Amino acid sequence: MLSLKNTRQVLYWAIFLGLLVRISSATFGFGFHARDDYFHVLDPAIHWLEDPEFNWEKSDLAGAGLRSHLIPRTVLNLLKLEIALGIEDPTTQLGLIFVLLGLYSLLAVPGMFLLVRQMADEKTGLIAALITALHFSLPYGGTKLLIEAIAIPPLVFGFYFVARKEARGYFMGGLLLGFACWLRFQIGVVCLGLVAAIIYTHLKERNDGQGKEFVLLAKNLGLLASGAGITLLVQGLYDIYTTGVFYGPFINNIKFNMNPPKSLTSSNAFSYIIMWLALLLPPFAFVLLPPFIRAARLYPLLSFPWLAFLITHSFISHKEERFMYPVIPLFCALLALSVFVKDDCNHPYWLKVKKWWTVSVKAFIFVHLLALGLVCINQSQLNQRQAMRNLRSDTQVTGLISIGPEIQSYFLQRKDLTIFRRGKAHLEWLQAAMRTVRAKKVPINRVISYKAEHATVAAHLEKVKLQCEVKEELRGWWLDRLIFKGNPRHNRRRSTIELWHCQDSML
After folding, report:
1. Of 56, 208, 318, 443, which shows the fewest CB atoms inside 10 Å?
2. Which positions of the chain have pLDDT values less than 70?
């Protein structure tokens, strides 16, 4: 049994290391993970900053009517505070917001310690805290404007309160899990898995003839539902205040996902299973998997919600790795509990491979530390920011067409430009855009596009009588380029961007 002093020291070290890597990821590893970081959070905040009367729901911005105002308006207030303090540079502004997000995400570290200690012992709780502090995915996602990652702290503490199996704990757990659902409504699937785990555990542990236990179960589930119901009621009232409709964003999001646009990519049902196996880092997974499976069987409070979330999302055709972020802490807790239960694992396969346990764990830690190093210096989507900064400082540019790359006005900061943008090369659209600007006598003299589509873009520009030449290639971060080569279809935005200088021969 660890002493109280030693426990606190190790926990403080876990928190300190978690803080260190999160600040490093926020400052040195500057970038976005997904387009939703920017367009569903930062972009509406910018528009409210410029125009307090801006109506997101009636605009053509991404996420209009589909997202709660809670996170974008929080970012808006942070931007206002930074401006009041004299911080004007967009990179500095966003870097400070990323640091604050990292501090918030750090709450998951002590939360994980409390949760796993409640279920096992202090040593295992400390292992879980260290994994949560240093698992490469959590400092990365926790410092980005990812709605999925922002939901993690209330989810972890919600599970902790439920694991205490006290009346007050069920109510507090409901409040926090309801808030996690507010941030990311898909967490409702986790909550259903949690309810199933509570019922399963009760049926497994009940004593025959004790009907009072069913009354207690109903009471505990009622308290859990009451806590969640209060938070979700507040959410509905907030939605009325901000959008005018009770649960408006949630309802619209459901409608959108019931009939998604064809532009959304789709993947097979096994994509997420492969992803989770990859997080066990084969070939080490062949040694780590038996105790992990045993931990999953012994702790349904963690495994049921995790599996419910995984299976449900596996049947949804549109898949992105970030959708799994909310349940990564449950995975980390099961990893820690694998250490706790490994000595009681008697499966014949485990008895053959357990001699490799120590080597596998050391290799597992080594590879994760390498990944953590990449996280702390990551420059994801640097190509986009390079393009915006170059155009911002280009005094000769008068009109811009983007065929592919997103326009991030936060970094561009050029309200004087005439801008047209389309996600993919389409000749008819380009012809219509050129007719519009030529009628207004506005010369288009800059174009940005992806290098992978150079031939198509060049042909289209020639057909609309734009004489263009590629002056710069914005290559971005080397790992982004590598990811693009591995999967061009799903990572197009990470590829090299070409900056064309053009002259309109019709003007």
Report:
1. 208
2. 1-5, 207-212, 507
Q: Is the dihedral of CA 159, 161, 166, 172 positive or negative?
A: negative
Q: What does the radius of gyration of the chain's CA atoms come to, in whole angstroms?
A: 25
How far, in whole angstroms, is CA 61 from its chain's centroid? Answer: 20
Residue with tokens 């997000």: 101
As a whole number of angstroms, the distance between CA 271 and CA 293 comes to 20
3-state helix vs strand vs coil in the chain, percent to 5: 70, 5, 25
Per the DSSP assignment, residues forming a β-bridge with 469 are 501
**CA-to-CA distance for 397 and 414, rounded, in angstroms?**
10
Q: What is the CB neighbour count within 10 angstroms for residue 344? A: 9
Amino acid found at 82 = E
Cα 156 to Cα 132: distance, rounded to the nearest angstrom = 11
Which residue stretches of 106-247 are H helix? 108-119, 122-134, 137-142, 147-150, 152-163, 167-183, 187-205, 212-243
How far is residue 151's CA from residue 325's CA, in Å, rounded to a whole number?
9
Half-sphere exposure (CA, 13 Å, Cβ side) for 419?
Answer: 19
Length in residues, the chain: 507
**C-alpha of 391 from chain center:** 29
Cα–Cα distance between 2 and 336 in angstroms, integer? 17
Edge-to-edge strands, sheet with 466-474 = 418-422, 399-403, 446-450, 497-504, 466-474
SS3 482: helix
Q: What whole-number distance in Å separates Cα of residue 241 and Cα of residue 234?
A: 10
User: Which contiguous run of DSSP H or E holds residue 399?
Assistant: strand 399-403
- Measured CA to CA, the distance from residue 272 to residue 268 in angstroms comes to 9
Apex 446 CA angle, 445 and 452, nearest 5: 140
Convert the pLDDT of each residue in 2-37 to its tens digit.
666 688 899 999 999 999 999 999 998 888 888 888
User: pLDDT tens, 132-187?
Assistant: 999 999 999 999 999 999 999 999 999 999 999 999 999 999 999 999 999 999 99
Residues 97-124 have pLDDT tens digits of 999 999 999 999 999 999 999 999 999 9
- CA dist., res. 69 & res. 82, Å (int): 20
Residue with tokens 């706790």: 340
Residue 499 neighbours by CB distance under 10 Å = 21
CA torsion 449→451→453→456, rounded to 10°? 80
Cα–Cα dist 178/137, whole Å? 24
Q: ω into residue 283 within 30 of 0, thus cis?
A: yes
Name the residue among 389, 423, 417 with its Cα closest to residue 404: 423
